[in-house]
């Protein structure tokens, strides 16, 4: 049996089609996830900051329970997207594994935050920046690349402010790093 060889232009066309498919898949899934988690983390950060700063409730961390419904919604949404997806490219798999790895790293940071004197926000911003930046590069979507950079800048600032103020920095970093790129990705999805 004779193997057929692809010409350079055929190989380039296949790669271009794979990137285009991944970008379309990402736009459909990604805008939803960036927007959902952007709003959840924004509300969590600003909510925690206000509750703790003004001592409105003795357990300000309770605000983070809003992540539980978001986890459920994300899992259900992802399962439905997977069922409805005709083709999954290698870039789709890379994207999925990237964010799974970041989730594991974030959960690890959260488990050990007492050992970090609760200065975990800066590390989480670094991890979110990594995922956002790489996602932007994978799908060639510059607003996500810039969003990743903004999250890294937020992390640098957060490393240099008191713990309570890290929540304020985190909220603003999420606006620039997740929400603005998320809405731009959603708009690109409809074009």
Features:
191 residues; elongated; mainly alpha; single chain; 6 helices; 79% helix
Written description of the protein model:
- The structure is a single chain.
- The protein is an all-alpha fold and 191 residues long.
- It has one domain (10-190).
- Helix content is 79%, strand content 0%.
- It is built from six helices and no strands.
- Helix 1 (8-53) packs antiparallel against helix 2 (67-84), helix 1 packs across helix 6 (163-190) and helix 4 (121-139) packs parallel to helix 6 (163-190).
- The longest helix is centred in the N-terminal third of the chain and has 46 residues, at 8-53.
- It is elongated and about 65 Å long.
- The protein starts with 7 loop residues before the first helix and ends with a helix.
- The model has no long low-confidence stretch (mean pLDDT 88).
């Amino acid at each position: 049996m004779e193997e057929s060889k692809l010409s350079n232009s055929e190989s380039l066309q296949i790669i271009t089609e794979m990137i285009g498919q991944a970008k379309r898949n990402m736009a459909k899934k990604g805008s939803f996830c960036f927007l959902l988690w952007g709003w959840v983390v924004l509300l969590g950060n600003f909510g925690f900051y206000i509750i703790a700063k003004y001592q409105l409730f003795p357990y300000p961390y309770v605000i983070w329970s809003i992540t539980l419904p978001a986890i459920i919604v994300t899992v259900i949404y992802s399962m439905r997207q997977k069922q409805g997806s005709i083709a999954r490219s290698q870039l789709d798999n890379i994207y999925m594994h990237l964010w799974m790895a970041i989730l594991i790293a974030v959960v690890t940071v959260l488990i050990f935050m007492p050992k970090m004197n609760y200065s975990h926000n800066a590390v989480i911003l670094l991890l979110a920046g990594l995922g956002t930046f790489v996602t932007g590069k994978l799908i060639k979507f510059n607003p996500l690349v810039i969003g990743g950079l903004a999250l890294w800048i937020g992390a640098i600032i957060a490393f240099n402010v008191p713990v309570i103020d890290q929540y304020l920095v985190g909220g603003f970093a999420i606006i620039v790093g997740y929400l603005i790129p998320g809405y731009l990705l959603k708009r690109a999805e409809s074009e």
